[in-house]
Amino acid sequence: MDNAIDKPRTMINPPDGLTLIYIPGGEFVMGHLQFGIERPPHRVRLSPYWLGHTEVTNAAYRTFTRETGYAASQYDQDDGFNADDQPVVGVDYADAAAYCKWAGGRLPTEAEWEFAARGSDERLYPWGDEPPRPDRAVYGKLRSDTATTQPVGSKPGDCSPFGLLDMAGNVLEWCADWAGPYPIDGGVTIDPQGPEQGTSRIMRGGCYRHHAITLRAPQRLYTLPNQKRNYAGFRLAKDAD
Fold this sequence. Notes:
It is a single chain. This protein has 241 residues and is an alpha+beta fold. It has a single domain, classed as paralog of FGE (formylglycine-generating enzyme) (Alpha-Beta Complex). Helix content is 12%, strand content 18%. It is built from three helices and eleven strands, in the order βββββαααββββββ. InterPro entries: CTDL_fold (IPR016187), Sulfatase_Mod_Factor_Kinase (IPR051043), SUMF_dom (IPR005532), SUMF_sf (IPR042095). Keywords: Kinase, Transferase.
């Protein structure tokens, strides 16, 4: 694809020590025809930004709570979900937004999330159009009694055109947008922010519990912002200078 990066530009975010990857911005077709919630496909143009190489980890989130006195995550004492290198889960939208503010950034918009996951060639998954496999992404463990998240980056095949990991599986990720239908005017939307108000927020990406079809990069999930689930986390975004 035109904007694939062989060696991504990275930075270490000082407050939490996590790696961010530079996303150069560009134009792409957002959405898909397969499901109504993803229609209509429409053109979006984005400015450059930074996005977390992986989801925010428990170790990083604990640094945030120690320094601010903010409440621990819902699963901080659960041995199945609280390893330092697992993605933090059991955080609602406000928790995720508070962390991002402390870390000097913000949650990504869903347009930024989708572009980072699939680039500009309209691929279905971060790695391309091939269906998911268990050796490529963390998913499909709904019926397992021991189902849990995996350490971030444990499936290097779940890699986007820009080098971001875990955008198809492991945990769902909060985005900044209120949930709502896509525009239908047919023009190019520049740096969309989503509706001005709403009752649900957008989550993106698949997770360890869900089936393969939910790993598609254009998939959208409307979620009440106060929900704290053991399959929901987030990644940090920052504006580029």
